Amino acid sequence: MRRYGTAVLLLLTGGAVLRITLFSELYLRYVQAGLRPYLIVSGAALVLLGLATAVLRSRTPDDHVALACEDQHGHDEQEAPHSHHRTPRTAWLLTLPAVALLLFPPPALGSYSAAREAAQRAAQGVGTFPALPAGNPVELTVAEFSSRAIYDSRRSLKGRTVRLTGFVTHGDDGTWYVTRLTVSCCAADATTSKAEVRGADALPADTWVTVTGTWHPKGALGSDEAWPPVLDVTTVTQVKQPADPYEKP
């Protein structure tokens, strides 16, 4: 089995990548949708390389290796085949992440990641935003709502009913938020947007919800006091986590 260690590692890694990209949408927990073709090609290449490595190892004669080992280490010819193509024991530890991704894909980033990140706000500063579509409620991302609430000099959210979808996070003082992570490329560059929810009881952390309500102004535009924006909610509905849990910038 040791002689096939490299092949096994390549097959496990390639199979794990194909499992989350070609046969499911789990890859959306980690990267943008546009990277899917590249991941599929990479996974297929790893699988093919693993198969090719296994075939080459199976065709390598043991006696040639035995002679080489005898010259180098002074062992007899009967002991050498046992050391043929041995994979270092520590290298087998590399199979653990591949097996974990294949069998137990990690969940999307959630409340823990959001809580550890300092408040990050849009960099555009106070200004004007495009007009909101007519009708209520207006469907907005959490990032859009946050930016308009903090920076829109026209106060376009005033008097409008909005609908946001995100997961629940908790504050230290009993407040709770509807939160969403924004990803530019992959989960490693995720940033946090959130809105404080008032008028409804808190749900457990990481529960996905759709909330409907109106903006509750606070603080001066662009100030620290305006962060995070507040939403006076009228309805809170539990929903399933979207296939793509991240918002786009």
Descriptive tags:
249 residues; alpha/beta; OB fold (Dihydrolipoamide Acetyltransferase, E2P); 2 domains; five-stranded mixed beta barrel; 6 strands
Tell me what you see in this structure.
Pfam families: DUF1980_C (PF21537). Keywords: Membrane, Transmembrane, Transmembrane helix. The chain contains 6 helices and 6 strands, in the order αααααβαβββββ. The two termini are 48 Å apart. The protein has 2 domains: 105 residues, no CATH class; 126 residues, Beta Barrel (OB fold (Dihydrolipoamide Acetyltransferase, E2P)), CATH 2.40.50. Helix content is 31%, strand content 18%. Helix 1 runs antiparallel to helix 2 and helix 1 packs parallel to helix 4. The longest helix has 23 residues. About 10% of the residues have low confidence. It is of the alpha/beta class and 249 residues long. A 5-stranded mixed barrel has the order 2-3-4-6-5.
Short description:
The chain has 249 residues and is of the alpha/beta class. The protein has helices at residues 5-21, 36-58, 62-73, 95-103, 111-116, 142-151; strands spanning 138-139, 161-170, 176-182, 191-198, 208-216, 230-238.
